[in-house]
Fold this protein.
Amino acid sequence: MNAAEKMKHARITRKGYTWLGMGLVSLMFSAGSLLATSAAHAAYPEREITFVVPYPPGGNSDNLARIFAERLREKINVPIVVENRPGGTTSLGTSQVARSKPDGYTMLLATSTAFTVLPHIRDLPYNPDKDFVFVGSLSGYLPILTVRNDFPANNLKELIDYAKKNPGKLTWGSAGVASGGHLSGEIIKNETDINMLHIPYKGSADTISALLGGHIDLFIDGVGLELVKSGRAKGLVTFSSVRHSELPDVPTPAEAGYDVTLPFEGFWGVALPVGTPPDVVAKLAKATEEILAEPETQQRFQRISMTASWKDGNAYAQDLQDSKKFYGELLKKIGFAE
């Protein structure tokens, strides 16, 4: 090998070593990044978590969130800050979480209204099918048709008779347009052929004040439980297929003689922005399942007309799809969707 060939060989060799070195550095950097990311996820959670509730304080959704947040804090040893973001019949708070960083530090109290009802009646600032990943379900619901103590009806038949004799005079309040209480009232209105006026409020807590203040005649909501138990209002039916364990003397609509359509089992769950690491979702799912299995949690849920109900994220997502189909048909039936 002559001198020129030796110099060329040396340059090629040095170039090969350079590329090899750069490849090794790149490989080490990538491995280090993966290890750092894995370690970060393993350490989750390291700071407070925001739990967005798309309702105002004081209603049953807020109460549910606070009971769960208290136990989750004790379970995973970081603060859980409940942030009420009402507005747009749950769409404001829901869209806030959809736009949040997918790192597990912003959770949503998912509601059937946000994911299964609103998509049929308005354009939304989020995609309920693509913008979220679900931790799992939290609770079902037992709403109570609650009337003022001075209202001249003591059962569902008397209520319907009164409405037919006084068309347009009966008023019912709800936590907002397209809320469970609103749709339940529309069902009764349409299937018993009565005329009553809907008055939407900003949340369930406002319906309590409205009822006790004589501004509305009734509402269909779980917040009626304490009013009925304390004697401040009358419960005519539990708007469900089963009686409420806290109100064993209050019948279901079918038991009261009216086989009306019942809303798809109202339920709440926990959602995160899409892109949240699977191991973070799994950690929250494990903690949630354990919390809902606790007898004390189940009893506390019962006292606010909730029923602890765990399903994993995939099963809960399927329930939402089934509920969405149900409400699509129901809303067409009652004239709220085309």
Q: What stands out?
A: Residues 3-40 have pLDDT under 50 and may be disordered.
